[in-house]
Structures
1.
Amino acid sequence: MLTRISTLASSSDPVLAHLKGELASVEDLDVLFVASLFHDVGKGLGPDHSESGAKLVREYCLQSGFSEARAAQASLLVKHHLLLNHLAQRRDIEDPKTLRDLLAKIPDEHLLRSLYVLTWADVSSVHPDAWSAWKASLLRRLYETAQSELREESSQPETESRRDALAQETFGHPREEVLEHIKLLPRRYASSVSPRQVADHLELIQSLSSHRRIAAKARDMGSHWDLAVVMADRPGLLARICAGLTTLGLSIASSQVYTRVDGLAIDLFSVIARDPSQVRDAEDLARLCEERIGKARDLPSAELEEMVRGYIRRWEGSVSHIMTPKVSVEFHDQASDDRTVLDITAPDRLGLLFDLTAHLSRRQWVIHSARVWTEADRAIDSFYLTGSDGRRIAADSIREEVRQELAALLSSEK
C-alpha cells in the first residue's frame, strides 16, 4: 500500500488525476506513510482492528519522536481508514446526516485529505477490480462536499434559498414553473439535484401524454450513465424499473426516488452497461429504457418474474464466481435522520436487485434511495426505507421477520 501512495505522484491515469493533485497538497507525508504501514496491523489483535491499529501507531509515533499532535493524526487515520469507503458504499451522499457523521470524526481539512488518499490506496490494493472510475467519482463527491464544508466555502443551504438558486438557471423554463415543480417534491430533491437536472425532469414531464406514459433521458458521465425516468407512480414501481434495467444488461450503481404530490415519480439512476458496445449513445439508451421499463411496468407479477428469470437463465452461464461472501442483513436507525437504513451484503448474482426491491415492495415499504455496490463477487446494497405511513420501520419483530426472509432469499440459488 505504501508503494501505491509513492507511485501515485507519477501516475498518468486520468481516473487518478484528482487523487494525484490532493496527494501533492498533503501537508505531512510522514504521517500518511506511517498510517499506511499500520492501517491493518491490528488484525488478529481484537474484534476491531482499526482501534487496535490506532493505539499501536500512536505508541510507535511517540517512541519515534513524533509530536503528540502528529501521533494523534496518524492514530485517527488508522482508526478511520475504512470510514470514507464505508460511507461512499453504504450511505446516501446527498443525506446531510452522512456529512455530519463524517465531519464528527474527521473535523480537519488536512486530515481529510490524507484520509482520502489513504482510502484509495487501501481499496485499490484489495484486487484489480476494487477500484473503478465510478467508485472514484463517488468517493470524490463525498470528499469534496466535506472539504467545502470544512473550508466554510459553502454550507447546506436553507430549502427556500436552494429553491431560489435552482430557479435562477432555468434552461428556458419560466422561473415560476421551476419553483412550482420543486414545491411538488420532497425537500431533499432541491438539495440533491442541479439546475440542468431540474430542466431535464421538466422536459420529461411535459413530454408525457396518453401515448407516451414513460419518458427517460440519459447522460454519458464517462464512468457511468446518469438516467432519469419519469412516469405515474404505482406500488412496486422501483422493482419493475429494476427488472427493465436488469434485462437490458445494465448494472444499477445507485438510485434516488422522488414522487411529486400529483403522483408523478421521478426516479434517478446511475447505471453501468455490462457490455458498453450495446449502447450507441444517450438517445439510444433512453429509447431502450423507455421500451423495456414500459414492458416491465405493465406485466402481471408472474410474467414479470418470468421475464427476469428468463434473462438470468440466458446469461448466468457467462458469469463466473471465485468466492462466496457471507450473507449479512442489518437494520440501522442512526444512519439517517428520518429513515430506517437496511444494509445487505450477499453473493452477487444476476437479478439480485430486482429480487430485493420486489421483496421490500411486497412489504409495502417505501424505498427512498438505494446505494448499490459490487466488489468482486460481493453485493453491498443499502436501502433508505420507511413504512407506507412515512415513518421509520420500528417494530423489532417485523425487522427480525424480514431479516430472516432476506437471509433465506440471499442464500438461495435463484
2.
Amino acid sequence: MHRYLDFNATCPPVQAALDAVTQAASQAPGNPSSLHWAGRAARRVVDDARDKIAAHVKTESGSIVFTSGGTESNNIAIHSVLANSKPGSIVSSAIEHPAVLSPLERFSTQQAKEQGWSLTTVRPDHSGLINAETMIASIESSTRLVCLMLANNETGVLQPVEQVAAHCRERGIPMLVDAVQALGKTPIDFNALGIDFMSLSSHKIGGPKGVGLLLVRRGVRLIELAPGGGQERGRRSGTENVPGIAGFAAALDKIDFSTFAPIRDLFEEELMREIPDASIIAKDVNRTPNTSLVLLPGMDGETLLMQLDLAGFAVASGSACSSGKREPSHVLMAMGIPEQLARTSIRVSFGPGNTEADARALVEALLTASRRLKQMAGVRV
C-alpha cells in the first residue's frame, strides 16, 4: 500500500484543477495574444483566473505576473530590484528557499563586494523562528532589498513578515516575501502588507506544476529575465500557460490544510511515545498545520528515506527541490543543529486523503526501520 505524505514538495492536483486544465486546453485553444476568436477565448481564461487569484490574496488584478513557478518569480523580483538600484546591502533570512538564497549569493562574491554590495543573512533561533527585531536591526539606510519567507518549507514555521514589512514600508525599502508554502495554510493579504513582491506557486495547493505568479506592488518596475514578445504587460515575456493558469485558479480554496493538524499532532505524539529520543522541530511555535520535521538520532535521513520508500511511504529529507544534494539541511544548520544530527531529519507533510491510520502506520514503519538500521550498525535493540 502506498501512502503519500510529502504535500509540501507538491500537492497532487485536485479534480477541479484537472477539469479546468482540460477545459481550457480544449475550449480556449488559441494564443492569448491573438486577436481572433480563439485568442480572445484564451485571453478570457487568463483574465478570469487573474481576477479570481487577485481577490483571493486581496490585491488588484494588475499586480499579478504569471510565471513558471516560485523560482522564476523570486528571481524576477530579486534581479529587478538590484538592476535598478545603486550598490548597497541586502538583508535576507538564512532559511530562505534556494530560489532566493542562490541568486542572492552572487551579491556576496568578492567582485560584488568591490562594487559596494553586501549580503547579511539573519539566522533563526533554535525553533526556526526569525526574530523580527534582529532582522530589522540589520536593515540600514543603504539596504536595497529585504527577503523573508512567510512559511518555511522544511519546518513549517510562520515568520514575522508583518513586523518586518511594516518597517520596510516606513523606510521605503523593497521587500520580497516568498509565500509559496503559505498559500492555503494561512491567510494572505498582499495589499495590507504593503510589500513590493510576493511569490506563489500552483502545485503547492493542488494546481498544475509549472505555473506560479509574482505579485508586484503598483508602480514597481520589473526587469524581464528573458525579453521577448512583451506578454504580461511587458513584465514577463512568453506565451502564457493558459491551461496551467486556469488550473491554478480552480485549485484555490479546494484544500483546507488546517484540517490535517490533528493527524500531524497524532503522528508526533505516537512518534515520541515509540521513539523517545526523537525530537520535533518547532513543536511549540506557530507553524503550518500539516508539517512535521523530526530528528531521529542515530539514523541517516537519506537511508531512512529509502527504507520508508520500500515500505510504501513518500516523505522527504529536507527540501525536495534540492534533493539531489547530500549536504545537510541549510535550515537546520542555520538553527545551530549539529551537522550529524541534521542529517537524521525527515519531513512529513500531510494532505488530502491522509488519515490517522496513515500517521500510525508511518510511526510503525519508522520504528521498524529504526530497529533494522540499528541492527545493521551492530547496535543492540
